[in-house]
Automatic annotation (TrEMBL):
GO CC, one annotated term: membrane
InterPro entries per UniProt: Malectin-like_Carb-bd_dom
Protein name per its UniProtKB record: Malectin-like domain-containing protein
Keyword presence, Methyltransferase: no
PANTHER family associated with the record: CARBOHYDRATE-BINDING PROTEIN OF THE ER PROTEIN (PTHR45631:SF44), OS07G0107800 PROTEIN-RELATED (PTHR45631)
Keywords of this entry: Membrane, Signal, Transmembrane, Transmembrane helix
Malectin-like domain location: 83-178
Topology versus the membrane: Single-pass membrane protein
Location(s) in or outside the cell: Membrane
Pfam families reported in the protein's UniProt record: Malectin_like
Keyword Phosphoprotein annotated: no
Length: 187
């Protein structure tokens, strides 16, 4: 019985790694021919891209990590017992503070999203270690370009960050992938 419970805790802790995901939606200044639709699966063991049940093609992360240290986090390093310390780290977007990620609630999905007008050909999203022995981790990164005018609230000097995803009036079988309530901050 105790061995089964221990295995379940380990599986649950491993799922936290798989559920943490980030997405960034970019308002593009370029034409539709330069549309961005990138989905990166961090920790994927597949060297070849694969397509999921939503017809989204995912690639592994090696080609997209330009600095820092890539680590494989074993599930035993994750806080699978509620009274253990949670992982805390910062997200930075193009060198600017975005959010502090706190994995206190083990079973919660921890999504972060931003809508941002790109200012260069390259953009960076960094996971910054802020405390000793607190290793930042990510399971997925999704980048999408949007047509100009889709988010008229997003002025070029501002970014809109996800606060909450809500499907008002929807039944349990409906999934709305990008519906969100956002807050704007100037960069």
């Amino acid at each position: 019985m105790e061995k089964t419970r221990h295995k379940q805790r380990l599986v649950d802790a491993h799922l936290v790694l798989l559920m943490l995901s980030f997405s960034a939606l970019f308002l593009s200044k370029s034409s539709l021919s330069h549309a961005t639709f990138i989905s990166i699966d961090f920790g994927s063991s597949d060297s070849e891209p694969y397509t999921d049940e939503n017809s989204i093609t995912w690639t592994e992360d090696d080609a997209n990590i330009q600095s820092g240290e890539s680590q494989f986090l074993k599930y035993s390093t994750m806080p699978y017992v509620r009274d253990e310390q949670s992982q805390v780290f910062d997200l930075q977007f193009d060198g600017n503070y975005w959010a502090t990620v706190n994995t206190t609630h083990l079973y919660d999905i921890v999504p972060y999203g931003a809508i941002y007008t790109v200012k260069a050909n390259n953009n960076s999203i960094c996971l910054a270690q802020t405390m000793p022995n607190q290793v930042p981790f990510i399971s997925a990164l999704e980048l999408r370009s949007l047509l100009p005018g889709m988010y008229s609230q997003a002025a070029p000097n501002y970014a809109m960050f996800l606060n909450l995803r809500v499907a008002y009036g929807a039944n349990d079988t409906i999934s709305i992938r990008y519906a969100c309530i956002c807050t704007c901050f100037e960069f």
